[in-house]
Amino acid sequence: MAEPRAQDLPIAPAAGGASLSNGTGTGPSQSANGKASAMAAEAAPVLEVRDLKKHFPVKKGLLRKTVGHVYAVDGVSFTIGRGETVGLVGESGCGKTTVGRTLLRLVEPTSGQILLDGKDVTNLSKNEFRPYRREMQIIFQDPFSSLDPRMTAGQIVSEPLEVHGEGDRSQRRERVAELFRRVGLRPQQMDNFPHQFSGGQRQRIGIARALALNPKLIIGDEPVSALDVSIQAQVINILMDLQKELGLSYLFISHNLAVVEHISHRIAVMYLGRIVEYADKKTIFTAPRHPYTEALLSAVPVPDPRVKRKKIVLDGDVPSPVKPPSGCHFHTRCPIAVARCKEESPALVEKAPGQFAACHLR
Ligand SMILES: Nc1ncnc2c1ncn2[C@@H]1O[C@H](COP(=O)(O)OP(=O)(O)O)[C@@H](O)[C@H]1O
Ligand code: SF4
Ligand SMILES: [Mg+2]
């Protein structure tokens, strides 16, 4: 396994997994969501990811020979503290979903380390990983296809309890009723089927299911992207209330920077398999460093009509992660790129206290 490169680590691994704030003396405790962030700063991180890589082989021909790789995740490091939400944003195809799936070991990492509560779980066998796996749950984007249409809502929420042999039938039913109440559904709705619920209600079922085993960390992979804007806010508010009540940590994945604004304490911006900027929310929104963050931010509407943001339109789509551009992956679309950008890959370095960015010029 490759050693993590020091310049890629916006954290202090030697301190047993200190969160970003501990290494710098600033950070979450000074961000907008003070209380939860202060909790995050005190405790060891729930999750620490060190130089995570996932390269999918590209196979061709009868013999299925490997002819290349999809560099979906190419050296990603971050931490999530207790009660903290880290937003992971970037355009479609940047590798966000692969980060989430790799953390859950739904796909095996190519290299790097995943630490849960300080314990390295990267190379545990399936059996050894089981107790850790229940600490991390996922909510998917599409509340229509992610719920089995043949199961009742109650069965869907109860399934993880059954799989892990939790309680007897009546205890499970009681627990499911409690979970329904927690997410704002009526326990009487337990016997209804998914098609009898609205999109927002289905996502509440997904949240209840994710909560069933009392996890520490929930990965939301575009959990509100398929919902109407008015419903999105409701679901985000539920997640924030649950975080306050239960001290949950979230990795909140979205292609839309505006969606992660309300819920996140810190935000990691991803481009073609790498984190290009990482800072607390306020900094990302008021003083971004990376031209890619600026471009994403320029698409976020400003509530005050007197304030105008300069719109930066990026040309074309994200290049293929099979053949990422040389040097800085972003140079083919960057409005301020210079010759050096094509040759040299910029390291993710601390540009201001608690603000990390990978750019030669900024
Ligand atoms: N199982 C897989 N096999 C091969 N390539 C994959 C696989 N899963 C994802 N990819 C590729 O990895 C890249 C990143 O995908 P993904 O993680 O889904 O990005 P995002 O969630 O940011 O849209 C894409 O080019 C995608 O096609
Ligand atoms: S390193 Fe160069 S290409 Fe990359 S973001 Fe900075 S200026 Fe743009
Ligand atoms: Mg995705």
What does this structure look like?
The chain has 362 residues and is of the alpha/beta class. The protein contains 12 helices and 12 strands. It has 2 domains: 6-135 and 215-357, P-loop containing nucleotide triphosphate hydrolases (Rossmann fold, 3-Layer(aba) Sandwich), CATH 3.40.50.300; 149-205, no CATH class. It has helices at 20-24, 34-42, 96-103, 126-133, 153-163, 169-182, 199-211, 229-246, 257-261, 281-286, 291-298, 339-343; strands at residues 47-60, 65-80, 85-89, 111-116, 119-120, 136-139, 217-221, 249-254, 266-271, 274-280, 349-352, 355-357. Helix 6 (169-182) packs across helix 7. The chain binds adenosine-5'-diphosphate, iron/sulfur cluster (SF4) and magnesium ion.
Show the helix and strand layout.
Layout: H1 20-24, H2 34-42, E1 47-60, E2 65-80, E3 85-89, H3 96-103, E4 111-116, E5 119-120, H4 126-133, E6 136-139, H5 153-163, H6 169-182, H7 199-211, E7 217-221, H8 229-246, E8 249-254, H9 257-261, E9 266-271, E10 274-280, H10 281-286, H11 291-298, H12 339-343, E11 349-352, E12 355-357
Parallel strand pairs: 3-8, 3-9, 6-7, 7-8
Antiparallel strand pairs: 1-2, 1-4, 4-5, 9-10, 10-12, 11-12
Helix pairs in contact: 5-6, 5-7, 6-7, 7-8
Bound molecules: adenosine-5'-diphosphate, iron/sulfur cluster and magnesium ion.
Outline of this structure?
The protein is of the alpha/beta class and 362 residues long. The protein is 30% helix and 22% strand.
